[in-house]
Structure formats: structure tokens, C-alpha cells
Amino acid sequence: MDDTRREFLDDLLSTASPSGYEVPGQRIWIDYVEAFADDVQTDEYGNAVAVHEGSDDCDVSVAFAGHGDEIGFIVRDVTDDGFLSIGRVGGSDKTVVPGQHVTVHTDDGPIDGVVGQTAIHIRDSDDDEAPDIARQHVDIGVEEGETAEELVEVGDPVTFTQRVRELEDGRLTARGMDNRVGIWAAAEGLRRAVEAGADATVYAVSTVQEEVGLQGARMVGFDLDPDAVVACDVTHATDSPGVPGEKSTGVELGEGPVVARGSANHPALVAAVRDVAAEADLDVQLQATGSRTGTDADAFYTARGGTPTLSLGLPNRYMHTPVEVIDAADLDEMADLLGALGERAEAFAPFGVDL
């Protein structure tokens, strides 16, 4: 990953955009894709679509779509003592919240805080279970509710305060890998398809509100109407200690992006992506999704009566925690794979099953 691409990834990861509050992150994504897209459109909720128009004599279109939102929290109430009660935005994990630094994103700028954790010396030693998020609180350092209310409003979003860190062997850690890596890959897949002179129309999409029910994909899926959609997201890498054996999928960091099979994943599109990967000498892993993918693919594939769709995942350790870990080489290969698919989309269309 060169410096320009890495800067783009870092900018995405360092910009908070919990579901419903995605504008800052979407702006970064739009500014990046405008440099090589023929056009960029947005809708009323902030979904963003960039397009490479392709050749006039090619009527094939393919979309690469990631979701730009992340999990987080929201200010639910301000107590008389100046503490902030919080609620979930998406699937936030109560066990990793206590003792964390957080940022409250107000209209007037960020406010630093911490999620309080009663010291081990004085809490009940028989009860070490993390309290529900609704029973946790943010301490911003004030002494009374009136002061807190001058700084913070009910409904302000809250995120963990983290920065991108480099681990060994090309691994990166940050909050919000889910799913900044997906919109990075969608943008980069589009750029690489453009550079390859793709004849097909190629879209890159950054959706909103995936973490609260795939809502942005439901909005975009109908209007976009591509021939095929690749939903770019993360998937669980189960190669770290502590993963229950029955939950293991065999997915590992550093072994390439993950092609899902089953449920929403159209067999012709699965075959096309695997063929492209083989021809480009790119490693891919396989994952079974017998009922649902848990990604925007579940919304895209039923749009307009059925759109061939695939969930393409990036291996990710410790999902929905502040320390998600990915392999940068996997991410580059994901973008390479998308770019190659965009370049060769016409050769695989139409994507229907043979009956």
C-alpha cells in the first residue's frame, strides 16, 4: 500500500461516523473518489455513489459497495451530577466499554470523556460481569448537570478515542475497521478499474446505516440497478486464541479476501470472482453463509426483484471492539480483485443462473 492509499485509509479510520452521523466520513470518501470518477452522487441520507461510465457500446454494470458507518454510542441523558448516560448505536459490545477513553461529538466540537469503571478494590468481587451499556456512564469531568448540558446535548454521538497503530508483519489495528476497509476497497477497486480502462460501467458505493439494519443499502439498491453487486465488508478471522471451536471458520489473516458462498451469494458471481482471482494470482478464502451474510449483500440481492450479489469479506480479528486487527496485504489484494473484476465484468455477464 503506497503512501497516498495509506493516508486515505488513515483519514477514514480517524474520522468518527457512527450510524446516523456519517457525514464527516462520507465527505472524506467523496473527496477521494472525485479525483477519478466520472460523477459522484449523494442522496438525502448521505449514501454516496461514484461511477466510471465505461464504453458506450458496453451495457454491463457492476457495483462495489461498502458501508461507511461504524458502531458507537449516543448520549441518552445527562444526570444531575453531570454524568452522561449512553445507549448503543449498532452492535456495541458492553464488555469492552468500561475504562475506555471516548469522544462526544457535539455540534460545537469534540468533548473528551471516559467510561467510568468502579475500581477493582471496591466493587463486588462476586460480580465481574460488565453492566449493560444503559447502566454505564461517561465522565466528562464536570460537577453538575447544568454544566454538562452547556457542553453536550442528548442525541450527540460517542465513539472510542483511538488512533491507527501499526503492529508487526503488516498488520494494522484501530476501531472502525468495520467497515472503513470496505469503503476503502470499493473506492480503490473503482480506481484500479478506471486505470485498467474498464469497458463496463463500474460503481463504487459508500452506504450509511448498515450497522442498524442495512438501511443505506436498501435505499441505494433500488435506484442503482446494476447487473451485479459486490458487498465489501469484514468477516471474522478465527485464527486467534479464545475463539470457540464451533465458531471457527478457518479464515485467517494474511491469506487473502474471503468469498462467501450460500444464501445471498449468487453462484455465477461467486464463480466469476474466483476465476478472476485465479487469473490474477490472488489468494482467496472461502466461507459458508447458509442463512445470511450479515452484510449489505442481504439487502442488495433482493433489490428490484433480484440482483446477483456477493459478500466479499476482509479477515478481521476482534470485530466490534476498539482493537480490530487486519492485514494490509489482504486489503490491497481485495482492491486488486475488485479492480480486475471491473475490468473483466463484460466477459462474465449476464450473471443469471442457467435453468
Write the layout of secondary structure elements.
Blueprint: H1 3-13, H2 23-33, E1 39-42, E2 48-52, E3 61-67, E4 72-78, E5 84-89, E6 101-106, E7 109-115, E8 137-139, H3 145-151, E9 157-160, E10 165-166, E11 171-174, H4 177-195, E12 201-207, H5 215-224, E13 228-236, E14 258-261, H6 267-279, E15 285-288, H7 297-300, E16 309-316, E17 324-327, H8 328-348
Parallel strand pairs: 3-12, 3-13, 13-16, 14-15
Antiparallel strand pairs: 1-2, 2-12, 4-5, 4-9, 5-8, 6-7, 6-9, 7-8, 10-11, 11-17, 14-16
Order of helices and strands: HHEEEEEEEEHEEEHEHEEHEHEEH
The total strand number stands at 17
How many helices? The count is: 8
Percentage of β-strand residues: 25-35%
Rg, rounded, reads: 21 Å
Low-confidence stretches: none
| Largest sheet, strands/sense/barrel | 8 strands, mixed
**Residue share in helices?**
25-40%
CATH class of the largest domain: Alpha Beta
Describe the structure.
- It is a single chain.
- With 355 residues, this protein is α+β, with helices and mostly antiparallel strands.
- It has 2 domains: 3-70 and 175-348, Zn peptidases (Aminopeptidase), CATH 3.40.630; 72-160, Elongation Factor Tu (Ef-tu), domain 3.
- It has helices at 3-13, 23-33, 145-151, 177-195, 215-224, 267-279, 297-300, 328-348; strands spanning 39-42, 48-52, 61-67, 72-78, 84-89, 101-106, 109-115, 137-139, 157-160, 165-166, 171-174, 201-207, 228-236, 258-261, 285-288, 309-316, 324-327.
- Strand 14, helix 6 and strand 15 form a beta-alpha-beta unit.
- The protein is globular, with a radius of gyration of 21 Å.
- The protein starts with a helix and ends in a 7-residue tail after the last helix.
